[in-house]
Amino acid sequence: MKKLITLAFILLLGFSNLYGFDGERKGFIFGGGIGVNLLSISRSNSNFSESKTAFLTNFKIGYAPSNTLEIFYISKISWFSGSTDDLTLFGLGAVAATFYFNNTSETGWFASGGIGYSSIGELSGSSSSSSTEFGFGVFGGGGYEFAAHWSVEVDLLSSSIDSQNYFGVLVSINVLGF
């Protein structure tokens, strides 16, 4: 699998607009962001429900075939304190797309969405083993690019891992190199 991902990345770079970062969204894109996730966790087989506020990080890499469409891989990771004092990571890795409504300006409204795998696990300071669980997740939302390369985004995320359901409202400020 790693060889396939490496090959895809090399081909993406080889066939992309290697001039990059020329003010045109078309070509290779790379970006990230920070924000907050208002996360709701529930179990499908009980009345258990809890809410968490989490620190959010975004990572985005991909290709834009035009100034209005981006196709990319995105990793959205929420960091919060779990049931113990250990740091819990809830993430979504997805194949996604963004559509910009205005192709004549570097600013404007956009809509995005994606589908992929989700995971949850704890980072523990102790040597005890902790497990990571995987499931299915989707996200969708939109935002506004208020300056060249800078945007604010609001997404809704839904995920199911084992018998737990996760729903999040993600708000982030992002920077995108193109």
Domain unit count? 1
What's the alpha carbon Rg, rounded to whole Å? Answer: 17 Å
Give the DSSP E fraction (strand runs of 2 or more residues).
Answer: over 45%
Q: Tell me the number of helical segments per DSSP (H or I, 4 or more residues long).
A: 1
- Biggest β-sheet strands, sense, barrel: 8 strands, antiparallel, barrel
CATH class: Mainly Beta
CATH topology: Porin
H/E topology pattern: HEEEEEEEE
Q: What is the count of β-strands? A: 8
Q: Which quaternary structure do these chains form? A: single chain
CATH architecture annotation: Beta Barrel
- Point out poorly predicted stretches: none
> What overall form do the CA principal axes indicate?
globular
Strand-pairing-aware structural class = mainly beta
**Mean residue pLDDT:** 85
End-to-end distance: 27 Å
Please give the share of residues in helix: under 10%
- Largest sheet strand order: 1-2-3-4-5-6-7-8
